[in-house]
């Protein structure tokens, strides 16, 4: 199958590490021109240097704790450069802990960084997508939208809000040739997973290796995902091949989620 993303422009959030970086690399491999976006300019420059230079890949420095600044920077970029056919919303998850003991500002901060920022980015890129009759908005969320995860109370709550925002947006934009889908990572080999394993180890008294093995044993595949495996799913959804897939939650979790 030739996914053929030639002449497509993609904006990839959180693209300096983990799933975001792997997604940027995968989209580029299929022919897309990618603009990276994250808050650390040095890391953005380092990833940009890894991309093939035959296309004009670029980056935007923005902090997702400030959605108005993010909106201004992306809108300015679009007005001076080009629009985007593909938007990959991807932001690091909130810290763990029981939902009952969460402070109000934890919910507010997570809501801002995830739902509000996803929303302002969609508003910035959709006019171009409508003009060209092609758009792909892909949100990296969590399997918690199907099955809440113990010890991730704030994340469970906010991810659910993003999933429903996404489904509503899919219904509104489908007639314009724009699809909106969610990719739900299971346990994936990223810095976020390392943090979760450390927290589980501290909570249970088990070693980090024991905590990791317990998590792997909960997955039929008996291993963690590689970031590239999530990136392949995103890249497919970004392509013409996925033009009739809209408004779905796609778990990429090795079969861990118990529900269909």
TrEMBL record:
Belongs to the short-chain dehydrogenases/reductases (SDR) family. Signal peptide: none annotated. This is 3-oxoacyl-[acyl-carrier protein] reductase. InterPro entries: NAD(P)-bd_dom_sf (IPR036291), SDR (IPR050259), SDR_fam (IPR002347). CDD domains: BKR_like_SDR_like.
């Amino acid at each position: 199958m030739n996914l053929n993303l030639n002449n497509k422009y993609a904006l990839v959030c959180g693209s300096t590490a983990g799933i975001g970086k792997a997604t940027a690399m995968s989209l580029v491999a299929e022919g897309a021109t990618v603009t990276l976006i994250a808050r650390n300019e040095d890391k953005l420059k380092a990833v940009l240097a890894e991309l093939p230079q035959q296309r004009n890949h670029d980056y935007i420095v923005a902090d997702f704790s400030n959605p108005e600044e993010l909106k201004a920077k992306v809108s300015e970029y679009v007005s001076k450069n080009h629009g985007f056919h593909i938007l990959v919303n991807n932001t690091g998850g909130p810290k763990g802990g029981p939902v009952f003991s969460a402070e109000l500002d934890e919910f507010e901060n997570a809501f801002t960084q995830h739902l509000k920022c996803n929303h302002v980015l969609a508003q910035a890129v959709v006019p171009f997508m409508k003009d060209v009759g092609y758009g792909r908005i892909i949100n990296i969320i969590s399997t918690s939208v199907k099955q809440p995860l113990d010890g991730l109370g704030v994340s469970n709550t906010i991810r659910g809000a993003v999933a429903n925002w996404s489904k509503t947006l899919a219904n509104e934009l489908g007639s314009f040739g724009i699809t909106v889908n969610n990719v739900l990572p299971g346990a994936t080999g990223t810095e976020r997973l390392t943090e979760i394993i450390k927290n589980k180890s501290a909570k249970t008294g088990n070693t980090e290796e024991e905590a990791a093995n317990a998590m792997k044993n909960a997955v039929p595949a008996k291993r963690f995902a590689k970031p590239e495996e999530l990136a392949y799913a995103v890249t497919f959804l970004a392509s013409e091949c996925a033009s009739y897939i809209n408004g779905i939650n796609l778990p990429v979790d090795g079969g861990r989620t118990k529900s269909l």
